[in-house]
C-alpha cells in the first residue's frame, strides 16, 4: 500500500483512522467534531486526511465536522490556535505536522484525545512517555528517520564536486534543530564533506541565507525537515532555481514547485 501511495498521504490516512478509533461510541451517535491543527494549509495533506475519513464512512460536513487551525508556518501562533480548539470542546485533536504544533497541543489539554504525526522521536521531545506505552492522552506516528539525512547528503556528495561545501538550511525555532544539525554534521564527516549550517526562521532570513550560498559558492543545499519550510516551499524552490543551486528535500512537494 505504501508503494502505491506517497508516504505523507499514507501517514495522514493512518492519523485519520486513529482519530476515529479514539471515540467510536460518540462517532456512532451523530456528527463527530474533530479539531485539526497544522503548521501549513496543504491541499495534499487535507485531501489525504478527508479521504482517510471517507474510507471509514465519515464525510466532512455530513457526519463529521472538522475545525481547522493553520499556523501558516508561524510557530508562535500554535498556543492560541490550539486553545480555541480546546475551548470549542472538539472530541479529538489531530496535530498533523510539526513538533512545535504537537508540543503546543499536548500542553493545551490533558483530557482531549490527541493524534499526532511528528518528524522526531516523540519520547525525546516529551510528547509521550514511551513508544510501547505512550500514556496520557496522546498517540500517533513518528516519521523520525535520521538515517535519511545521511542518505540525502550522500546523494548530494555524489552529484557535486568533491571539494565543494554543502549548505544545510535549518529552522532554529524547531525544538529538534540541534539534534538535526548534529546528525547532519556527523553524516557529512563520515562522507568526508564540508557542511555549513545556515539558520533561517523568517522569509527575510531565508533570502539572506541564499545570498550567502551564492556568495560563498556552496555547491548544493540540504533543506532540513520542517513544517515552516514546507509552508515556504514555493519561495525555496524559486530561490534554488534563481541561484541554480541543486537541493534535496524531505518531501516531494518541493519538487512539484519546480525545486531543483
Automatic annotation (TrEMBL):
Pfam families: ABC_sub_bind (PF04392). InterPro entries: ABC_transpt-TYRBP-like. Signal peptide: none annotated. It comes from the Bacteria. This is ABC transporter substrate-binding protein. The lineage of its organism: Bacteria, Pseudomonadati, Pseudomonadota, Alphaproteobacteria, Hyphomicrobiales.
Amino acid at each position: 500500500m505504501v508503494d502505491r501511495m506517497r508516504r505523507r498521504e499514507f501517514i495522514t490516512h493512518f492519523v485519520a483512522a486513529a482519530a476515529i478509533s479514539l471515540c467510536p461510541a460518540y462517532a456512532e451517535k451523530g456528527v463527530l467534531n474533530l479539531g485539526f491543527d497544522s503548521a501549513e494549509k496543504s491541499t495534499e495533506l487535507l485531501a489525504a486526511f478527508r479521504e482517510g475519513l471517507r474510507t471509514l464512512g465519515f464525510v466532512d460536513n455530513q457526519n463529521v465536522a472538522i475545525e481547522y487551525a493553520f499556523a501558516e508556518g508561524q510557530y508562535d501562533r500554535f498556543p492560541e490556535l490550539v486553545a480555541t480548539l480546546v475551548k470549542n470542546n472538539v472530541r479529538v485533536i489531530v496535530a498533523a505536522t510539526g513538533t512545535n504544533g504537537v508540543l503546543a497541543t499536548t500542553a493545551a489539554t490533558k483530557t482531549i484525545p490527541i493524534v499526532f504525526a511528528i518528524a522526531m522521536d516523540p519520547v525525546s521531545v516529551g510528547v509521550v512517555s514511551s513508544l510501547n506505552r505512550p500514556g496520557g492522552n496522546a498517540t500517533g506516528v513518528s516519521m523520525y528517520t535520521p538515517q535519511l539525512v545521511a542518505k540525502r547528503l550522500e546523494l548530494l556528495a555524489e552529484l557535486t564536486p568533491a571539494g565543494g561545501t554543502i549548505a544545510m538550511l535549518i529552522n532554529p525555532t524547531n525544538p529538534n534543530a540541534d539534534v538535526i544539525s548534529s546528525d547532519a554534521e556527523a553524516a557529512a564527516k563520515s562522507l568526508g564533506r564540508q557542511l555549513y549550517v545556515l539558520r533561517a526562521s523568517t522569509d527575510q532570513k531565508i533570502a539572506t541565507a541564499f545570498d550567502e550560498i551564492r556568495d560563498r559558492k556552496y555547491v548544493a543545499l540540504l533543506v532540513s525537515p520542517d513544517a515552516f519550510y514546507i509552508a515556504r516551499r514555493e519561495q525555496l524552490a524559486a530561490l534554488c532555481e534563481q541561484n541554480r543551486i541543486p537541493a534535496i528535500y524531505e518531501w516531494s512537494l518541493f519538487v512539484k514547485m519546480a525545486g531543483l
